[in-house]
Write a structure and sequence with these properties.
CATH class of the largest domain: Alpha Beta
CATH architecture of the largest domain: 2-Layer Sandwich
Oligomer: single chain
Radius of gyration: 31 Å
CATH topology of the largest domain: BirA Bifunctional Protein, domain 2
Shape: globular
Strand order of the largest sheet: 8-12-13-20-19-18-17-16
Number of helices: 18
Number of domains: 3
Distance between the termini: 23 Å
Amino acid sequence: MTEQEKIRREKLEELKKLGVNPYPAELFPINNFSIDLIEDYKENSKVTIAGRIMSRRIQGNASFAEIQDSKGRIQVYFNRDEICKDNDKSKYNIIYKKLLDIGDIIGINGRMFKTKVGEITVLVKDFKILNKSLRPLPLPKVDSDGNEYDSFSDLEQRYRHRYLDLILNSQVKDIFVKRTKIINTIRNFLNKKSYLEVETPILQPIPGGASARPFITHHNALDIPLYLRISDELFLKKLIVGGLEAVYEFSRDFRNEGMDKNHNPEFTILELYVAYKDYFWMMDLTESLIEKVCIELNGKTKIQYDSKLIDFKAPYEKISMFDAIKKFTGYDISRMDENELRKICNDMSIEVDESMGEGKLIDAIFGSKCEKKFINPTFIIDYPKSMSPLTKQHRSNPNLTERFELFINGMEIANAYSELNDPIDQLERFENQLELGKKGDDEAMFIDMDFIKSLEYGMPPTSGIGIGLDRLIMLMTNQTSIQEVLFFPQMKPLRNEPVISNDAKIVLNKLQKKGECDFNIFKSEFDFSNKKWDKLTKELRVKDLISISKNENNLLIKPS
């Protein structure tokens, strides 16, 4: 515990002794928000606000402070004689001046006015402590020239402590407000078409609907393995079989795979399935939807993303998978078998392994040489059958499927099919996936016999799509990392700091700065008795924080 934290806890106890509850249970009747008061300023109007103290300037019997609420910040003015009308001035002199800190949350009743320099301000008539903060905020520092430094900007700290990020970096909150607006725009777009929003299981007996490595867990009561869903596709198609002709879900999916700026193991996807439609119809719908999202969020179809100008105005370019590969590599792979594909991968220095079948080899070529080329929205259409085990065979080419993926800024944003509804063909495709699994492909699909059974009862012609919402939100908010658009991105847990005494901390901190050194010389730098020193070194050795060894001449000590 730091000195500041100790002081704040002492203030907490002082408040309690004065009969002030630092964590009151009753509601505080907020009637106003900071930005609204500034934008719709009314002289001398009564206001009730609440928020966190972000700065204070105490000048004897008066003080200016800044309060931050959910919408922004506003200046407030504390005057002792306004707050304390009778002879007892303790609420200002003791509670406000001495026992409150930056970071505390308070409620305020007051009136609006403008200072001599014209700044809109709340004159505090009364205040109430709503929460006593026990840790100081890591606020940026300002040097003598007014330059700000040491801001809360370290990426790892921001992601690990998103609550602080939201308090200290106002632009972060704006990203997540926009995230909700994007999701609501999509939901309204689909609801106006009378499509039905549904929920399907997250824990599944078979991880179906995509080629991906699943997370596995165990259900104790049923004594069976269960998987976190990698996709909700098969369940939504079962609903189409059941007669629900248009269904969608904002799905939380989980894939036990790598992490980078475009991937998080837990992510959000929109899945939509509409009966009696095909992939051409779905392309039109997708264009309309994404164009609308862009306009609703930005007021126009063109946005600046990183250093690029991206235009979301429909219609979007369309190019087949094979044509795209030929355009950017010079190879026509449309008639190549697995061995030929493996050879040209080697020729182009594309990393492959023996577990990869034809579909994954083609995907590797496209991913390595093509996808980064598509900046403006582009539909990649007509995928090989080996890459699309859930997709209907192309109506004019039996080696292809009616599938498209939407690429924007070199990222896959959406994946869509004319859905395979032939149960015999579907079972054969699943069996081919099973063979890939035997070869070592840990992303190969499982066979879902209940899904096959549902198809045998009959699923109407259907088109389906999955849109990666996190990536779409990245684009629309000009963020280059998926972690920026997730409240709590996945992070490796920090090793818990061992609990040690304050004296042991002093010894350890000094040793960590020195590194390995002579035990007796290091010991002489502290004013501890031999008994105390033995106790401290034992404490640190038991926690595996230091090691003591002997060479030919000396006893050595070093941090672990």
